Amino acid sequence: MRTYLRVRGAHADEIAGEVVREQPLTIYVNGEKFLTLLCSPIDLEALVVGYLWMEKIIGGLDEIRHVEVSPVDGRAEVTLAGPVSLPTERILTSGCGGGITFRIDHRLFPRLASTLRVRPETLSLRMKDLFAAAVHYKTSRGIHGAALTDGERLLVVAEDVGRHNAVDKIKGAALRQGIPTEDRILLSTGRISSEMLLKAARMGVPLVASRTSPTEMAVALAEQLNITVCGYVRTDGLNLYAGHALVLSDGVAVAAPDA
Length: 259
Prior knowledge:
By secondary structure, the chain is an alpha+beta fold. It contains six helices and 14 strands. A six-stranded mixed beta sheet has the order 10-9-11-12-13-14, sandwiched between helices. A four-stranded mixed beta sheet has the order 4-3-6-5, covered by helices on one side. The longest helix is centred in the middle third of the chain and has 15 residues, at about 165-175.
């Protein structure tokens, strides 16, 4: 709990409330220091597993012998079934907190083939479900939420100060629970940037939807990888930036832009 001032016009009230927490977490793989992530101190094992999978350090849970996470020490020890060469060329992404990836080349990802089709109102309902399930957002704000859905219900929900961390947690939790991510929908409360789009591609997700906007690079990557990108999802509509997975009503007319 923190005490802060809430200023409204000429009035200032002293408030005691939650402020979102952030801490470093250093990951060691087979005793070798890999990297340090800035993250929310919740669901850390899912974050570690998901991040290692996203970066192709592991291909599945069967390659992990042991994971021990100490939130107090800010340290995660991962023991794999065999030796591994850790990548060293780090790329600073546009993710909040200064996200780091090692494999941002879109040529490493195949173009997706999916028959998934979703109506705009379905995305609006599931986005509403995400906000209802985001318990940490409700108490402190200032935190991002992500969810994996099949369109009918939320399958996995994760929260973190980093929107990219939240997606890593989604994959880590899905691996641990045996939930496939292919042909699912990824929801996010944060911006869809290039690394977010590539994380979706890595998971085999053909549709990414957000409460806010994508970047131009994310849209370009989505077009190359056959991923549908929707932004500014609201109860009364959304923006479709790329892809063919969104089913529009018969009465929707697409107008050409003014010359």
